[in-house]
C-alpha cells in the first residue's frame, strides 16, 4: 500500500482500492487490537494527538492503536491548556508538533483546519474531524463494520438517518459508500438534509440515492441503519436546534418491520436517538463499530508511517 508519508484529510484522498486494502489490513490487526497478539510495528514512533474539540472514542482509539503497536503518543486534549490559549496560531502549533512527532492526528472545530495543518506539517496529518467537514477515519471504521457484517459493501442498502447537514461522519461515509457501490437512502428532518454540493457530487458519481424521511418506511428493506446525533454545537442559532431536537428515535417498534439482518450503527456519542432497548437486539452494531476503530486506525497508522504490519 502506497500510503507512506501521505495525509488523510478527506475520504476523497483514498481510491476505492486503497480503502478496501485498508479494510483488509485492519482485519488482520484485530487480534492485536484485542490484546491477544503483540506487535512492535510502531516501536520508536511518536504520534501527536492534537484535539481541540471534545472526543472520547476517536482520541482513545487512536492512542490505543499506537500503544498496542508499541509506539508512543504525545497529546493535546484540551485547547484550554495549549499555547493556542495564549494566541499561538494553529499553523505554528502544528509546525512545531511536526518536529516532535512522526505523524499528527488532529481534531478541530473549524472546517478546513486539517487541510491547513497538512500544509503546515512535513509529517503525515490525519483528520480526526474538522467542524462539519470530514471525518475520514470514522468512515473507514464504519465501512469495516458493514463489511464484517455482510462480507461486502457493493449493493448494500444503507439508510443515513439524522443530521446529514452538519454531520461530518456522514459527509465522509456517504462518499465512500457511493464509490464502493452501495445504495443510499437519506432520512433527515427537512432542515438537516445533505448539503447540495455533497448531493450533486454523489449524483455525478452515479450513486443510487433516494430520500425517505419516514424512518419506519426507510428501514423496511435496508441492510444498514446509520443513525447520527443532531450536531447541536454546529447550529448558528439555539432556536433552530430546538425546532429539530428529538425529532427521531430508534426503538424496537421502528425496527419491527426491518429485515432480521439489519444492523443499526451510530458513530456515537448517542444523545437519545437510539433507545437502550435496541442494545439487547441482534441489530445493535454500534459497540462493535466503536471497537473496530482500533484495528482500522492501526492499519492506517502503519500505512502512513511506512511500518511493517505484524
Ligand atoms: C462523531 C464526531 O465527532 O463527528 N463522533 C465520533 O468521532 N465518533 C459524531 C458526533 O459527535 O456526533
Please give a structural write-up:
With 310 residues, the chain is an alpha/beta fold. The protein folds into 2 domains: 11-133 and 293-304, Rossmann fold (3-Layer(aba) Sandwich); 136-290, Aspartate/ornithine carbamoyltransferase (Rossmann fold). Helix content is 39%, strand content 14%. The chain has 11 helices and 9 strands. It has helices at 16-33, 57-68, 90-100, 113-120, 136-150, 168-179, 196-204, 215-219, 238-244, 252-255, 286-304, and strands spanning 46-51, 72-76, 103-108, 125-130, 157-161, 183-187, 209-211, 224-227, 263-265. The strands form 2 sheets. Strands 7-6-5-8-9 form a 5-stranded parallel β-sheet. A 4-stranded parallel β-sheet has the order 2-1-3-4, sandwiched between helices. Strand 1 (46-51), helix 2 and strand 2 form a beta-alpha-beta unit. Helix 1 (16-33) packs across helix 5, helix 3 crosses helix 4 (113-120) and helix 5 (136-150) crosses helix 6. The longest helix has 19 residues, at 286-304. The protein is globular. 47% of the residues are buried. The model has no long low-confidence stretch (mean pLDDT 96).
Amino acid at each position: 500500500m502506497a500510503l507512506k508519508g501521505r495525509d488523510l484529510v478527506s475520504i476523497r484522498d483514498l481510491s476505492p482500492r486503497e480503502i478496501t486494502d485498508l479494510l483488509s489490513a485492519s482485519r488482520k490487526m484485530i487480534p492485536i487490537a484485542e490484546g491477544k497478539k503483540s506487535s512492535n510495528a510502531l516501536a520508536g514512533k511518536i504520534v501527536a494527538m492534537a484535539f481541540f474539540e471534545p472526543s472520547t472514542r476517536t482520541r482513545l482509539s487512536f492512542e490505543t492503536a499506537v500503544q498496542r503497536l508499541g509506539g508512543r503518543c504525545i497529546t493535546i486534549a484540551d485547547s484550554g491548556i495549549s499555547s493556542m490559549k495564549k494566541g499561538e496560531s494553529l499553523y505554528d502549533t502544528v509546525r512545531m508538533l511536526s518536529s516532535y512527532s512522526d505523524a499528527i492526528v488532529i481534531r478541530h472545530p473549524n472546517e478546513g483546519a486539517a487541510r491547513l495543518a497538512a500544509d503546515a506539517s512535513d509529517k503525515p496529518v490525519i483528520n480526526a474531524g474538522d467542524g462539519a467537514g470530514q471525518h475520514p477515519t470514522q468512515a473507514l471504521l464504519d465501512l469495516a463494520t458493514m463489511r464484517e457484517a455482510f462480507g461486502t459493501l457493493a449493493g448494500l442498502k444503507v439508510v443515513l438517518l439524522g443530521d446529514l447537514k452538519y454531520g461530518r461522519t456522514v459527509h465522509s461515509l456517504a462518499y465512500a459508500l457511493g464509490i464502493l457501490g452501495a445504495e443510499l437512502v437519506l432520512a433527515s428532518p427537512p432542515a438537516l438534509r445533505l448539503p447540495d454540493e455533497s448531493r450533486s457530487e454523489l449524483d455525478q458519481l452515479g450513486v443510487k440515492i433516494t430520500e425517505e424521511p419516514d424512518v419506519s418506511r426507510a428501514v423496511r428493506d435496508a441492510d444498514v441503519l446509520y443513525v447520527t446525533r443532531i450536531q447541536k454545537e454546529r447550529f448558528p442559532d439555539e432556536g433552530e436546534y430546538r425546532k429539530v431536537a428529538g425529532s427521531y428515535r430508534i426503538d424496537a417498534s421502528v425496527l419491527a418491520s426491518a429485515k432480521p439482518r439489519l444492523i443499526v450503527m451510530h458513530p456515537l456519542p448517542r444523545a437519545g436517538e437510539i433507545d437502550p432497548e435496541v442494545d439487547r437486539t441482534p441489530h445493535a452494531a454500534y459497540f462493535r463499530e466503536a471497537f473496530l476503530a482500533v484495528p482500522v486506525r492501526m492499519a492506517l497508522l502503519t500505512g502512513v508511517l511506512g511500518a511493517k504490519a505484524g
